[in-house]
Amino acid sequence: MRISSPLPRITHDRQAFALTGLGVLLWVLAFANVQRIAEWLTYDVLGISAETHLGAALSFFLYDVPKIFLLLFGMIFVITTLQTFVQMNKVRELVTKRGEGVGNLIAAGFGALTPFCSCSSVPLFMGFVQAGIPLGITFSFLITSPIMNEVAFAMLWALFGWKVAVVYLISGITLGVIAGIVLGRMNLDRYLVEDVQALRNKPVRQVTTAEERITWRERFGRGLEGARDIIRKVWLYILIGVGIGSLIHGFVPQDALTGIMGAEAAWWSVPLAVVIGIPIYSGEAGAIPVASALLSKGAALGTVLAFMMSVVALSLPEMIILRRVLTPRLLATFVAIVAAGLIFTGYLFNALAPMLM
pLDDT tens, 311-331? Predict the structure, then answer.
């Protein structure tokens, strides 16, 4: 019997690790410098002033588009590569056994630990969906991730005090858990787009002994193929979504927003704040200073926080990107449930404001 030598396999694995390591290094360098490059292109190469609306919008666009593409490519590559080791049916079974409450809480807690804005959370959400993780649990992550992270917590503490920061953290995680449970119980998987449904419903084969011995070169190749496939499907949605967000970011002045929301609180102020926040695109670092300015103008605490949570959790660019995965009916259901939760949170903070401020 002829026994094949393991040397070619070892050589191929070393080459795969070397190329992947180089790719990871280039990814890290690109991600670390994407904002600096965007500002250099906008302000130095194109000569557009940073003080102009066009400059702010273009710099934002040139920063956010490559950032999202890098996150999307990196996350899908990692997830797809890991799937070559894991039987996804066992992962789904493990998550399901935890129960909807515990599973949703874990997902919401993970979301609170990830430093992503709404659009940056979408790539990981898409990976969870296509991996077959229960939809309600994936929504708990998607809702909580942009609302709360360590940056938001620190800024809230600095601007509003520790009581507001702690209650905001608890309310953000609670909203993610409850909304995820509600969405999960509605059995909305059939309202995913057809190709995503096909991936979720595809029978998962048992990993054979031969497949367990596939080379690292093949594992990395599958990860690369998976990342490319997702990029091909969503790139246009990302460009449109971030483009709209950039225009709003650059051309909607803070003074106009303050003028609309700076009046005394009324029963309709919280729902209006949520509606106003949806088309505006910003991360926590941009939304919290605006919230602080609104609060200083006399807006109620709950109204301000409902607006801020709407900006980071229900941004229009995020909705456009999610449309690649969710049908209009599922997307509308998601928005309605989260908006209802934000409105309730706003009223709650208004009621608790005398104790928190």
Answer: 877 877 778 777 877 888 888
CA 63 to each of CA 38, 181, 239, 287: distance values in angstroms, whole numbers, following the listed order: 5, 35, 12, 17
Residue that the structure tokens 């999960």 belong to = 184
The whole-angstrom separation of Cα 136 and Cα 143 is 11
Return the SS3 of 246.
Answer: helix
CA-closest candidate to residue 249, choices 218, 279, 219: 279
pTM exceeds 0.85 for this model: no
Given a cut of 50, the residues of the chain with pLDDT beneath it are 1-4, 204-211, 263
Q: Which of 294, 291, 289 is nearest to 264 (CA)?
A: 294
For residue 45, what is the DSSP state? I
Return the H-helix or E-strand segment holding 349.
Answer: helix 328-356
Which amino acid would we find at residue 50? Answer: A
Q: HSE of 166 in the Cβ direction (CA atoms, 13 Å)?
A: 7
> Cα(276)–Cα(349) distance, rounded to whole angstroms?
18
Q: Which among 335, 266, 336, 334 is positioned nearest to 303, based on CA atoms?
A: 266
